[in-house]
């Protein structure tokens, strides 16, 4: 016995001074809980029934055929019963233990199920259904470099225009095993910076941003991230990232030329009070350049109210207070929400559209075609912008080598001429 103890193969039983094999954890369970039995198993039975019998081989010749009775241990939990771990969340290791497989097999079940036998797939499916196990997606991304999260920071997620853009991104993402996470910056560069810091903690595969004028903090963070970055919605010259969209200046010029071509001499561009909405400001810059080119004086007017409805009502009150001989003959509103509000409240201010005031907007909102009069506007293609932005992400993730430089893809807008913009002479 002493020799056996020196070899680390025996231990003294506290019961009757007998010796018994030093067993591994799994073997110990088999000894005292095989098939629900509540009685000890003798060593010869161990040789036949214990999967770990080879650990006892060196001492079989010196061991008594029956080491004697030992107190029964509690039976091990069977695979059919799931005991919730202390953390309250099952891990891949818990699922592997309960299914009697390795954690690698569990991971393969999710990532490459065709490489797992049908019997194991059935067993794992039962355990996963029982436990409600959900794979750790961050761990999966880091381990496999497949799938993953694409973060998108929107300027205004409540806008119908941006809703179509999100739909385009999601359709492409789902076809390529990518998940889209959204953040809303409310046109604020500081809010965008906070969203980018949060996304960075998720280890995103790529980022899609709907503005190109970021804060210095955001620019520094984006420069450090080694992931594809797409600026979607508008294009700027000299940007270091992929771009998809259109030129805001071109849109502003398009609207101004529409009124200049009808002979209007006094044309106003109305902005709301949200000074951080640089996109509308850039449209006003395109309008101003077109006015200069036509030999006319630009008239950019900004409301105090930052919301579209309040800004439009404020603008209409100011226009109604002007003498007819000095009042602008046409007004370009920064977006359709403002233009539609102007049409709805014009009568209360004693103004007729388009008789006294021709009006146009931007965005082609759903109500633009059904107002009276119907609204002239510029129609972007947000679905195409969103889907193309995500396609660039997918192509960048699958590229074997870095591309020569950032891609710039322009998606043209359409001028939709309706009743509201007719200049009455």
From TrEMBL:
Which CDD domains does the record associate with it? HTH_LacI (cd01392), PBP1_GntR (cd01575)
One example of the protein's molecular function in GO is: DNA-binding transcription factor activity
Classification via SUPFAM superfamilies = lambda repressor-like DNA-binding domains, Periplasmic binding protein-like I
Q: Where is the HTH lacI-type domain?
A: 90-144
Q: Which domain of life is it from?
A: Bacteria
Native species: Cupriavidus gilardii
Give a Pfam family name. Peripla_BP_3
Keyword annotations of the record = DNA-binding, Transcription, Transcription regulation
Q: Gene3D superfamilies, from UniProt? A: 3.40.50.2300, lambda repressor-like DNA-binding domains (1.10.260.40)
Query: Which intervals of the chain are annotated as region Disordered?
Result: 63-89
- Name it: LacI family DNA-binding transcriptional regulator
């Amino acid at each position: 016995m002493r020799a056996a103890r020196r070899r680390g193969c025996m231990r003294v039983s506290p019961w009757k001074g007998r010796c018994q094999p030093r067993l591994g954890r799994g073997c110990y369970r088999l000894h005292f809980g095989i098939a629900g039995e509540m009685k000890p198993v003798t060593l010869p039975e161990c040789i036949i029934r214990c999967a770990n019998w080879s650990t006892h081989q060196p001492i079989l010749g010196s061991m008594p055929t029956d080491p004697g009775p030992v107190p029964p241990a509690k039976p091990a939990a069977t695979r059919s019963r799931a005991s919730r771990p202390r953390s309250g969340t099952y891990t891949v290791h818990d699922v592997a233990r309960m299914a009697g497989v390795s954690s690698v097999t569990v991971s393969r079940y999710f990532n490459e199920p065709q490489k797992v036998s049908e019997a194991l797939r059935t067993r794992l499916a039962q355990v996963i259904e029982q436990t409600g196990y959900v794979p750790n997606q961050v761990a999966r991304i880091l381990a496999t470099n497949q799938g993953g999260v694409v973060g998108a920071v929107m300027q205004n997620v409540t806008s119908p225009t941006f809703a179509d853009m999100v739909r385009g991104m999601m359709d492409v993402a789902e076809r390529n095993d990518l998940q889209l996470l959204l953040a809303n910056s409310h046109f604020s560069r500081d809010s965008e910076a906070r969203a980018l810091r949060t996304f960075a903690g998720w280890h995103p595969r790529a980022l899609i941003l709907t503005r190109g004028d970021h804060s210095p903090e955001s620019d520094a963070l984006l420069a450090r991230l080694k992931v594809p970055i797409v600026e979607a919605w508008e294009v700027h010259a000299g940007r270091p990232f992929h771009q998809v969209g259109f030129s805001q200046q071109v849109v502003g010029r398009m609207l101004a030329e529409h009124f200049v071509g009808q002979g209007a001499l006094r044309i106003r561009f109305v902005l709301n009070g949200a000074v951080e909405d640089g996109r509308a400001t850039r449209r006003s810059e395109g309008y101003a350049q077109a006015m200069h080119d036509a030999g006319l004086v630009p008239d950019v007017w900004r409301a105090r109210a930052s919301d579209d409805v309040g800004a439009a009502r404020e603008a209409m009150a100011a226009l109604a207070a002007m003498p007819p001989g000095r009042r602008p003959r046409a007004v370009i509103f920064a977006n359709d929400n403002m233009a539609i509000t102007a049409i709805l409240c014009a009568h209360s201010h004693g103004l007729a559209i388009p008789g006294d005031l021709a009006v146009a907007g931007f965005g082609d909102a759903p109500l633009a075609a059904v107002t009276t009069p119907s609204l002239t506007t510029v129609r972007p293609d947000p679905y195409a912008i969103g889907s193309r932005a995500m396609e660039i992400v997918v192509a960048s993730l699958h590229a074997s080598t870095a591309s020569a430089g950032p891609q710039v893809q322009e998606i043209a807008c359409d001028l939709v001429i309706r009743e509201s913009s007719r200049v009455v002479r």
